[in-house]
Here is the input.
Amino acid sequence: MRPRLQAVIAAIVLIACVTIFPVSRASAQAPTLQEQLVAQYKLAKLASDTSGFSVTEEGTLLEIKKGGLLGVPYTDKTTLTNKYEGGVLHPPNSAMVEARKKIFGHFGQTQDQGQTTKLFQKGDKVYPTKLDVNLEKDTVSLGVVACDTCNKTDPPTYNKTQVVFQFPKGSLAKASAGDVEDTIGQLLAVSDDTQQQDQGQQQGGQDQGQAKGQGQGQGQAQGQQQQSEPQTIQLGMTADQVTGALGKPEKIVNLGPKQLYIYKDMKVTFFNGRVADVQ
Here is the structure.
């Protein structure tokens, strides 16, 4: 009986190893949609003292592409929620705004006392402050605060608002980070100022390495052109493996733990040095 019992136990352990460990490894190599988006949109941090609020840590600078976002000063106890669905922005209705004024008027936050709503304009710059993915509701909520120094707002107000991006039912769980970023970018696009700064910083650190390996890189590119079979890019591959297969990208966007390699007809997204998405 003992040999049979040992055999059964060994079989159970083998099955557990086969089923559990690959899942754990896959989970480590495939970050969640929340993690990928947080890597793309670095959240800003604010703090206050006797002089008021200020940005203590800048986030990813975003540019508003469509007017109509309605917000309130950062000191306001509430946050207005705008909805973006099907390419259309739906700001809070007037009844909701009036109700907010009546409720919080008891705390001295009324329009008559200088606390008023803010209608953001196309071209205004903002920082993300909060990001939340809700797969059950197919929504991505993004809180933002105005970059008053960018918008030349004096005195600063740090107006804030929240946008709920509504996706079709059942689609968000299947969507890639790139798909979600494209939708968010219709309303809140990563500012060219941020992209140029990130590219400049990375370019400065790569100049010596590029000069040293220029001949080798050209040889790899020529070798790839001569190959007749298509190259395969898989999740979890490193940047070196991707450049070994596709050559050097036309552009590299460095966003901290996230990097974008832009090719002529492809965009490869890395998260912590590993391929997380390909478009």
Remarks:
- The chain has two domains: 33-190, 232-279.
